[in-house]
Specification:
The structure holds two protein chains of two kinds. By secondary structure, chain A is mainly alpha-helical. In chain A, α3 runs antiparallel to α4. Chain B has one domain. Chain B is built from four helices and no strands. Classes of the chains: A mainly alpha, B mainly alpha. The interface between A and B is medium-sized, with 22 and 19 residues.
Chain lengths: 118, 132
C-alpha cells in the first residue's frame, strides 16, 4: 500500500460518505460535486489497489498476507459496484448507497493499512 | 404494480449491502478454508455458509420477482436464526469459536450490521408484499 494515499482515501471517504448520507436523509440525490467526488474516490481506491498488488507481486509481504488479499479484493470491487448501483437509483436511496459505499471503503482501507503496517 | 418491486429504492440499498457481505464473507471464508482450515473448521465453515446465504439473498433481491422474493425471505430467516444462534453460542461456548465468523457476537466485528440486515430486510419485504 501507499500510506499517504491511504490516509487521503480514508479522510475523503469519511467526509464524502457523511455528506452523501445527509443528502439521502434530506431526500436528495447526489449533486454534481458529490458525484464527481464519488468517481474520484473510486479512482483513488483503484490506484491504491494496483499499488498494493504490484508491491505484493514484487515481494513485499504484510504479516497476514491472506487477510490482506481478502480485504484488498473486496475493496477493489466495492466502489465500481457502488457507483453502478448509485447510477441505477437516481433517488435519495442512490445517495444512501453512495454514502454507505464510501464509509465501507474508509473502514476497509483502514483495516488494509493496519494489516499492511503491522 | 410498482409497490411490490423489492429491488428499487430502499431495496437497492439492501441489494448493495447483501452483495457486499456476500463478497466480504466469501473472500474471508475462502482464504481461511484454503490456508488454515485446521485451526477453526467450525468457524470457517460457518463463515462460508453465511457467505452462501448472503449470495443467494442477493440473487433474490436482484431477481425481484415472486420467486426472488421467496428466495430472499428464506435466506433472511436463515440469516436471522444464524446470527442469533451463532451470536449466542459464541458468547456461551467461546472455545468452539477460536476465530471470528461474520455472525460471532451478533456480528460485532462488522458493526452489528449482520444483525440489523435481516431485520430491516424482512421489514422491507413485508412493506412491499404483493397485495392479493
Amino acid at each position: 500500500m501507499w500510506t499517504p494515499l491511504a490516509y487521503v482515501i480514508i479522510a475523503g471517504a469519511v467526509g464524502l460518505g457523511v455528506w452523501c448520507l445527509v443528502s439521502g436523509a434530506r431526500g436528495r440525490y447526489l449533486n454534481q460535486p458529490q458525484y464527481s467526488g464519488l468517481l474520484l474516490l473510486a479512482a483513488a481506491v483503484l490506484v491504491q489497489c494496483i499499488v498494493a498488488a504490484v508491491r505484493l507481486v514484487a515481494g513485499e509481504r504484510p504479516s497476514d498476507v491472506i487477510t490482506f488479499v481478502g480485504y484488498l479484493f473486496t475493496t477493489a470491487l466495492l466502489m465500481p459496484a457502488g457507483v453502478w448501483l448509485t447510477r441505477a437509483e437516481p433517488t435519495r436511496w442512490g445517495s444512501v448507497i453512495a454514502g454507505s459505499a464510501s464509509l465501507v471503503v474508509a473502514v476497509l482501507t483502514f483495516r488494509c493499512l493496519q494489516v499492511w503496517t503491522s | 404494480m410498482t409497490r411490490s418491486a423489492i429491488n428499487t429504492g430502499p431495496g437497492r440499498v439492501l441489494l448493495f449491502l447483501y452483495a457486499l457481505f456476500a463478497l466480504a464473507a466469501g473472500a474471508r471464508a475462502s482464504v481461511q478454508i484454503a490456508t488454515r482450515f485446521d485451526e477453526a473448521p467450525v468457524a470457517y465453515l460457518l463463515s462460508a455458509f453465511a457467505a452462501v446465504v448472503y449470495l443467494v439473498a442477493t440473487v433474490g433481491f436482484v431477481r425481484g420477482d415472486h420467486g426472488g422474493r421467496r428466495l430472499a425471505i428464506v435466506c433472511l430467516l436463515v440469516e436471522l436464526v444464524g446470527v442469533l444462534a451463532v451470536g449466542t453460542l459464541s458468547l456461551v461456548l467461546t472455545s468452539a469459536f477460536p476465530d471470528e465468523t461474520v455472525w460471532s457476537q451478533y456480528g460485532r466485528g462488522y458493526g452489528f450490521v449482520p444483525l440489523a440486515l435481516p431485520v430491516i430486510g424482512l421489514l422491507w419485504l413485508r412493506a412491499t408484499r404483493e397485495r392479493q
